[in-house]
Amino acid sequence: MTNLPRITTFGWVPEFARGLVRDLRARWAFEEVGQAYEVDLIRDAKTDEHKAHQPFGQVPFYHDDEMEIFESGAIVLRIAERWGRGQAGKLLPDDAAGRMHAIQWMLAALNSVEPPLVGLIINDRFEADKPWAEERRPVARAYLETRLRDLVARLGDKNWLEGEGFTIGDLMMVTVLRPLRIPRVLDDFPTLAAYVARGEARPAFQKALADHLAVFEQPVAA
To answer: How far apart, in whole angstroms, are the C-alpha atoms of residue 86 and residue 196?
Structure first.
């Protein structure tokens, strides 16, 4: 056993979810700060053993030599706090205001943008056969689009949410927005599509995504 930080995530997911599982957020943060890490793979997140660490039966779960935590936002913040602060352009600004602005955008991604996005995806993918799905879709999409228009207005012509510096707020927002390619919502928001593309072009993201996808190329253990 090494002293490297570790994340626990799935060793297999359906094809449509590959590239979207939330361990990608932690992997990307590790790559941005240049910190090596290890991965434990599980098949079932609903076991008593896993729920002792992640009470909602989800992934990822994280632990290092000081603590263990769950929730992707908390994990990314931990990585940035421990290995990113003090490094120019490494996820968290040094000044108090810049740090809090980065954190506020991370929370906005998770609390203001992701819930209506997930609502639309659930309607379109997992409940499409329900009698209410067709009627509910325009309402769900309109609610999401209101949030996206607000985000476009704030982003404007900046590269990142707070200007030229990429932070944990951008990391989280990009990963939250990426699934919108599935219902093709981003086609109607070119500013956000370009923003997501900038995030995905970062070498740290490319490495994190490659490592995430490589898991699913391995034989699945019985």
So the answer is: 26
